[in-house]
Amino acid sequence: MRGVRQNRRVPVHEITDPDDDRIADYRALTDVELRTRWEPPHGLFIAEGELVLRRALRAGYPARSYLVDAKRADQLADLDTGDAPVYAATQEVLQRATGFHVHRGVLASFHRKPLPSAAEVLAGARRAVILEDVNNHTNLGAIFRAVAALGVDAVLLSPSCADPLYRRSVRVSMGEVFAVPYAKLEPWPDALAQVRAAGFTVLAMTPAPDAVPIQRLDAAQRARAALLMGAEGAGLTRAAMEASDVRVVIPMRRGVDSLNVAAATAVACWELGRDDPL
């Protein structure tokens, strides 16, 4: 350790040892199993890239610490880092500590906020997306980015969905995971009854032959829609579909029977909101 140097307003603590306990939050970031078992119980998540960490701060997530490429420490010069320390290291040390090349130059560790209940998330919502068993972090991040852009007010997750605050999900969402309220929906799938009781029409996306083309939904079915999406490949379980109100499909051509779940969610959300005022 070489001590502390000043970066305009922000004191920067230089790290030379990848095993330094002060940067323990950032170890083995590429080990998905380890990180998903370790981060939520410890109440933290990692943001990668300046844009994402600034969005986390604007959303009110308290920072625990920052870890930056020593050559790019000026990126944080204008931040009010509060009590969160800023650590800087060479790319070699960063890579040995995290397990990957930190090409965006900056990472941050944040405290999680308590999750609201499903009822709280739905209370002010007009349109929602419900995800069953979506456990791919890239898909999950892309879904959050799409729903933020397309006017969805809430996301509900079955208990086996991936963690929206896992580093890859946050990065792929471009930080939009901080913009859309979300909650766990359990017990699954019985809790879908709570969504219906809140006044939503649950629309189950499926290629089943009896599904209604989504563009043919009437005004009442669109008014407060909760779009239910299943995992990549497997789709929705029978129990989830039986708990829905209407089965819907995106009509396709050239023999294609389905889209990636993130792409399908985006198309469906656009269709449900196409008459919204801009």
TrEMBL record:
One GO-annotated biological process of the protein: RNA processing
UniProtKB keywords: Methyltransferase, Transferase
Gene Ontology molecular function: any one: RNA methyltransferase activity
Name the UniProt record assigns to this protein: tRNA G18 (Ribose-2'-O)-methylase SpoU
Family matches, as SUPFAM superfamilies: alpha/beta knot, L30e-like
tRNA/rRNA methyltransferase SpoU type domain sequence ranges: 128-269
Gene3D superfamilies to which the protein is assigned, alphabetical: 3.30.1330.30, 3.40.1280.10
Ranges that cross the membrane: none
The organism of origin for this protein: Micromonospora kangleipakensis
UniProt key word Methyltransferase: yes
